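Reviewer 2 asked us to include a model.

Predict the structure of this chain.
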Amino acid sequence: MKAVIMAAGKSTRTYPLTLTRPKALLPVLNKTILEHQLDALVGLVDGVVMVVGYKGDMIRQRFGGGYRGLSIEYVEQVDQRGTGHAVLLCEEFIDGPFMAMNGDDLFDPADLARLAGAAQAALVKQVDDPRLYGIYEVTPEGRVIRLVEKPKVIFSNLTNVGVYKFTPAVFDVLKRTPLSERGEIEITSAVQTLAETSDFRVVQAEGYWLPIGYPWHVIDTNAYLLENHFKPEMLGEVSPAAHLSGAVSVGKGTIIRPGVVIDGPVCIGEDCDIGPNCWLRPGCTIGNHCRVGHGCEIKNSVFLDYAKAPHLNYVGDSVLGENVNLGCGTITANVRHDSQTHGSVVRGVLVDTGRRKLGAIFGDHVHTGINTSVYPGRKLWPHTYTRPGEAVERDIIGEES
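Predicted model (structure tokens):
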């Protein structure tokens, strides 16, 4: 059996992080989303058909023709014509039952295994507020009656999470599926047809489903995995004058200098330089080749590779892209004075993040001047910079890569 992973889309909602990479290559817990997905598929499928498009060469270069015994074949989706179109492009590679899944969310491996054992079905998750998703109406036995995308009237809390088990019969259904209002071929339309003409069922997820729709979801997902699915290793050099508590992972070649305090769960990658005299609080993942220097406090944040907070920085509830360098005294504010949840502008619209604490989202290669202060929820585009003493009150928008 094979799995189709749909990783072709250009995610504008996760800008600025996806200006320089496809969303499927965003890291959480120092592994890309795709690596988490492929790890979950090892032992379930023999091979993977990867549908790539936006910056697809980065995915090809990362994984080549295989991963942990899984063969990987690639299909190019040049025109973004929907999830159904993505699956249809894979027809020549499929000769039996297969799984199809979105390439930008994380799914519990045990739930994927249960879905793999079904004949034809969709993975669903009960959520408190399903308004932003497709929801299923099913019989008591789990047979699908209907699937409705973002319904105005909520009739169920069984949410479509974007993972399916199909037979090759779905290809003929997709070929007959009319275009949606967006001019796309939708998998959900094909699922509705299969439900009306055959026995199509749901498998309810018992574990996690971690959708990454906005940049701050990287922080949420990272924190969840640290709390619930983290196996620390101590491979680096830790000074006896450092204090580590809780679950802490230190990668090969990393140095933890005197006076460093680390309160886990914290994951630190390889070849990092931490300290002296800094504090890493719970929820932090530090990538490879990173620097956290003297007098810094880092809390519930994600550093991508080569990110640096060299001295006297506070970074809370934030994401630092690759090769970000914070000037001395750069501070990210993460709490509003009125204690309300933070808003963030996404595609020109102010979105309520639902978070009471949110710092900054730095794209790759951002440099800040000394004593920069960043307002909560602000985003800085790749290769932008701030001047000494600058207060970042609004997003700093640069050119799209």
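The first helix runs from residue 33 to 41. The CA atoms of residues 239 and 257 lie 5 Å apart. We have added this to the supplementary material.
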